[in-house]
# Entry
Amino acid sequence: MSDSKQNQKLINKPRDGDNIIENIIKLMEQAESVINLSGSEKKMYVLDTLKILIGEEMYDRYFYLITSFIDFTTEISKGRKIDINNIKKKFNCCI
# Structure
């Protein structure tokens, strides 16, 4: 089965009211269950699938936030210490 068909098979369509963050988390959980993928391949799965779900325009508009959130969530899930001051510098507009 091609990668594209496999990705389509794994996609759970978002429910009404789901937001981008909720979809990212759902996709990360799905990607985590695929044992034979490396970390970067899992991230690409999440990004490629999210682009299909939310559309290219929204994906491009929020790409930096999406990739930063994936990296942030991955670091937290691994139990690594997060530097809050560094996060505030990067996301000054949001905090």
Q: What stands out?
A: The chain has one domain: 3-90. The mean pLDDT is 77.
